[in-house]
Amino acid sequence: MLEKLDISLFNYINQSLSSDVLDFILVPIRYEKFWIPFYAFVLAYLIFNVKKYHWFSIILILGTIGMSDVVSSHIIKPLIERPRPCHDNSGLENVILRVRCGSGYSFTSSHATNHFTTATILFLVFGGLRKKWLGLLFVWAAAISFAQVYVGVHYPIDIFCGSILGLTIGSIGYYFYKQWRNQFLDKKYQL
How many domains does the chain have? Predict the structure, then answer.
């Protein structure tokens, strides 16, 4: 039953929602190069606002994001071995493939995992400063994740589970960040 729902939802997003406007928006936002200015801004913000121990904070944050990719791409995907919808047409109606179909597996979506990890850890680390604006990180992560289904390379369940995994890894990374911060930093250098 869950598999049928997953396929139906995939067909709806991939085909029924198809439009030139969504093609214009959703195809480019899933590429890493599209986000280079944003990543540069976040890195600059970290460097100029975390003060004395910024390098260790940056390493911890980037390490958490890197860990999300390792868990999704190198542990879960090879373990589950679920084919991408663009490779597995069982139960699918004419997949509209808007980008090159990756050669790897589908479950969990690394895009969803990595972007939700990034959104979570940045929101938790800097949340007290600008929660309203940092909440947009989750809109950004959701849009990129949704785009993965729209372009035909992931099923919705891959996105949902990747998002949950990203939220979890980001929260665990923040737990370690908070432990390190509370143990080693003077109060005046904390965020």
Answer: 1
Candidates 4, 159, 16; CA nearest to 94 is 16
The range of the structural domain enclosing residue 163 comes to 2-189
DSSP 33-95: GGGHHHHHHHHHHHHHHSGGGHHHHHHHHHHHHHHHHIIIIIIIHHHH-PPPTTT--TT----
Which CATH number belongs to the domain containing residue 153 in this structure? 1.20.144
For residue 179, how many other CB atoms are within 10 A of its CB? 10
Q: Which residue has the tokens 């990180």?
A: 137
Nearest CA among 108, 153, 140, 143 for reference residue 14: 153
Give the single-character DSSP code of 32: G
Token reading at 28: 């480019």
Output the six-digit token pair for 98.
């808007």
Tokens, residue 102: 């990756």
Residues 37-66: pLDDT tens digits?
887 887 787 777 666 556 777 788 889 989
Task: Write out the two tokens for 189.
Answer: 């250098």
pTM of the model: 0.84
CA distance 94 to 97: 9
